[in-house]
Amino acid sequence: MNRFQVDKLKSGMRFSKPVYIDQNNMLVGANVAIREGDIKRLLKWGIREILSEGFPVDDIQATISAIKDDGTDLGQIFSDYNKLIAMREEIEKVHLDAYNAVLKAHNSIRANRLFATSDLERAVEGIINILNKNRNAFLFMYNDFKEWDPLALHAANTTYYALLIGMRMKYTKPKLVELALGTLMINSGMTQIPVYITHKQTQLSDHELNQVKTHPILGYQAMKKLGNFSEKSCVIVLQHHEQYDGNGYPRGLKGMEIDEGARIATIADNYEAVLEGRSYREKQFFYQSMKQLVGLGARKFDTVLLKAFISLMSVYPIGSIVELNKGGIGLVIGSNPHKPMRPIVKMIMTESKQTVRDLVIVNLATDQSLFISRILDEKESGITMNDAL
Ligand SMILES: [Fe+2]
Description:
This protein is an alpha+beta fold. It contains 16 helices and 9 strands. It binds fe (ii) ion.
């Protein structure tokens, strides 16, 4: 066993083999990051050294060999996953900046005050940058945000999904920016609807519903009057409740009459809306949201764009906690675009319900003996997505 001094450990450090406190007690498994809290606890307990047969791992590639698989894309998935975890702080900052930029724009509209789009543009730059590095960055959007303004939060979150679809459709950077500026402002018209309606817990009356239905027009007008957005970004807001079958509002446009950006925005908006407005625990129902989206499918959405989104997220969306047929529990961390029923899963619990501390990733597309038997919610599994990450 090699010995390592506790005061030399850094948060996020990983070892190639499990790390032990003593002969009997493991601190973390191989390739599992040591957390700040672990180090503090060791120091508090007066433990000066830890033991491991391995060494600190700073080269992700070096650890890939530890994974047993057919070697398809698993190395990449593993590397992406490690990068995602390492990017957590950066991702959370970008998300908060986007949220704040939306909040500021909403407040300007409430006050009927002119506003610059520079904060929103910076936010979009940040999101595009982070999604280019790792398209699963949205997993960190679902932290504890009870105090956050739901209107601004929804707009920020919707923008991530809209950008992912835009990227899938090979949009150029200027097109992505226009799309994202639209989705950041998606429900800005709601700032003009009386609060008693937007906060009403019971069913809205016809009159109240009609008022809500004016929010795309109100948002469009506010963007024109108070901001300096392109027409394209404003149209996304104006048309984000139009439906492919013509049953949407405000104009009842059909199919290709609806701007493509708005057709993307409506998919992202609907997907996020199902995750929204609930307690923190209930926000984790990615699968329910995808199921609903697929159910509404051809009627409400452009199916080409919807398929692009499903191929990105898989039928069991990234972030879902799933049970496998043999009893193990895992977190979906990647999709196989051509096999949306068979995503890539990071194992959380073994078949005998022991916590998996090492980083074990299973690719259901290549491991034919395993399949998803059901989706679990956090209450049932006792695991939060944040723990699972
Ligand atoms: Fe809306």
